[in-house]
Amino acid sequence: EMKFIKVNLNVLLFSLAYYPWVIAWMFSSTLLKDYLHPYVIINYWQYVGVVFLLVKFLLKHKINILSLLTTLFFIAVAFVVSYGNDNASFVFYSIFLIFSGADQNLEKIIKYTMILQIVCLLITVFSAVSGIVDNKVVTSTAGNMVRMRHNLGYTFTTFTPNYFLSIVLEYIFIKKLDLSIIELLIIALLNIIIYKLTLTRLTMILVFFILIYLLGIKKIGYERFLSKLSTVSFILLSAISYFLSVVYTPQNRILNVLNSVLSERIQLSQVGLQTWGVNLLGTSVNWNSESINYNYIDSSYINILVCYGLVIFVIVIVGFTLVNLRAKQVQNFPLLFVLLMWAIRATIDPQLFLIWFNPFIFYIGKSLLSYKAEEFI
């Protein structure tokens, strides 16, 4: 009888530490933040949550010394990264959650996080459409195009398509890539509507690529090829991102066109690397999202490298690579496919290390604490 209560308590303590915090982060990028003050919740909840996670840890029957030391090392690194770095204040608590979550049912966490993303997205878009918050129309000129874009209740126009892409990836993972034609059509329709309103090209293209794969290519069976590709994807794409950022010059026609297609992202990565450089434990960066002096690094790989430093970068890249190797061992193709999409997405979007966009990061905790392969089925 006792064991039953203990198991639930473990999940309960983790849930209390995680869900209120992640909901607050989801609302932090909406214009509702002026009413809801999510940052107040985030700042306090990190203290409350640490207590929950420590109690959760103390209730464990068996404690593996190696796992304990590994976890303590990563949490210590994360603490140093977060300390005095405004942009990285969440890194400490994120790493704490990722390693505490290693013994949880991750499919459930991904499912519930997805549901919360959907609810938050609906509330935000509804609040913009109904006039509770401003549905601003923003003009952007990146990549030699003038675009009129609706922000749909978010602080930035790209957040709606960003959350939509996250939701699609989580949904196809939960459904094990087995979607009906109706589901595919609904996703396609929503993709077009969101694109029309926000004009975010790269996200739209990625969603259509996923749909085309699920519709047709899947039948031909590229599984072995994609599994192999997935296992090297994070190392390969982060290396390419870094390489392009270093060698970029407007004089090179190919790189110039590529930079333009990617809305100046390569150049912004280069400027970021030149301005702040790469430290072991990150740098406190002042972003400027005004269109004149815009300096935000949109590539997750370069963003993590510059802001959170080399150690966190290695944790993320090695962590995900190990997850993919484990998933390949047990032939968990849905996980491999979704992580391949995330690896591609991380070259253009800065959300790889943000749990409120990417709950798949919990798998890193499992992989780095060397959980058995069958944990990745």
Automatic annotation (TrEMBL):
UniProt entry tagged with the keyword Transmembrane helix: yes
Keywords: Membrane, Transmembrane, Transmembrane helix
Transmembrane segments: 7-27, 39-59, 66-84, 113-133, 153-172, 179-195, 229-248, 301-323, 335-357
Domain of life, per lineage: Bacteria
Entry protein name: Wzy
